[in-house]
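As a next step, the fold was encoded as tokens, giving this record:
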Amino acid sequence: MTAGTETKTIMEFLSENPDVDVSNAWERCWNIHSGIVDRIRDRFDVSLHPSCEGEDYFQSPDGQLEGSFNAYTGPETDWLVHSWIGNRKASILDMNATCFLSQDNRVPHLAVIFGTIPSLYFYAEYTPRMDLRTNLDYLQKYYDPANQDFLKFRSDPNWTRFVSHGTYLRALMSPVATSATAELNDDNITTCEKFLGPFIDRWFRWLDEAESLPAAEHEAQREYDFTVRELGYRTDPMNVLPQKVFGQQEFERRLNMRIGVAQMAEKRQRAA
């Protein structure tokens, strides 16, 4: 890859190689994601949110896109997402394992994304729940421990940093967010799998050791969490693809489902 590839858009990548069969990568990355989501479901009492019923497999009317969307919710987990969308015969995949925690503590949320464009895309992040610029103790507690692993991954010559064209998504990223592309092969998927081992273990340790958030701070934290969650989905540059394929009305329905608009409204009502 040349140095300029880190600022290419996803659509530019796809236009160069639009018809690559990425089925094998889908199977392997989906299995990695499934292991993460199963581990979270084993820890927390969650159930499938009704808004996702019937979405275990879907396809656009023209067959250009297919996918699956499952989101779980419970007392300690607001929105646990296990999803993918793309075309396994035509280069594009966007696969997500994302956990937005409830307000019992301030452990960062978890996000792990695999994609194919058709190069391999990998994103791993502890989504902050406070402004890191003004909360040094929080940064040192949750981001310093991941710094060396982040730097080691960044130094791997097989990987090129991927820069999102969405300014909000760049603002959302923590100092240890991994966002990178590499050649689509088993070795590079293995690199991601090895990186995720300690990355996920660390997050579970934080949950084990978490201090309870005082009840008086729950409402403000909830609104912070919901705002970050909603803006992250609404400003995703990848939205252009399903918007084009599904049409505006169906796209809006699916976007609200991804965000979990109904779950947010239900939780606000319970807290009122």
